[in-house]
Design a protein that fits this description.
five-stranded mixed β-sheet, 111 residues, globular
Length: 111
Amino acid sequence: MKLGKLKKSWQFDRIYKEGGKYYNDFFVLYILPNNIQEIRLGLTVTKKVGISVQRNRIKRLIREVLRTLSGISTGNDLVIVARKTAVDMEYSQAYKALIELLHRARVLKHN
């Protein structure tokens, strides 16, 4: 599945303001329907989470989990914010945490 990217701060702000919010111990998921048949993803990992190596590792983990999921409904903008507890997480933990959030947001068709 190909993921588009959210890059502009106004896109993030709009999703934070108008979108739905779901969270667990590791991540906060903001979701807002868009008018295109594409999934656009924005990632936020602040300096509070850790040094750049740790932040980039978390972003790679999130992208890899979402790349392997095939049942995400198109037509949504997703912003995933990593929490400080996500620093030392393994792939399996990230997978379970993101699946849980996507199910609660009702955008995951199966898995």
